[in-house]
Design a protein that fits this description.
Blueprint lengths: L6 H4 L5 E11 L2 E11 L6 E11 L10 E6 L7 E5 L5
Parallel strand pairs: 3-5
Antiparallel strand pairs: 1-2, 1-4, 2-3, 4-5
Amino acid sequence: METQNTTTENASRAPKLRGTVTSVAMDKTITVKVDTLKTHPKYGKKYLVSKKYLVHIPEGSYKTGDSVMFQECRPMSKRKRHIVIPAAK
């Protein structure tokens, strides 16, 4: 049986995250804040948890406040382990 190569087969299975750019001060790196809504196990109250990621940008320019999508990749440095997924145009 022959399989066909499609873009979905070649795409990474790493989960994609969406966040807001908070810093563009570094070269080829942006800081992205991801907000997650969690529920307290006992009381059921929902609360917001934020986490910052260092994300590699091979090309392109981003400004503070932009919304970006990124995914996990091989380690680029000590703390940088994600890469931006370019928006389809």
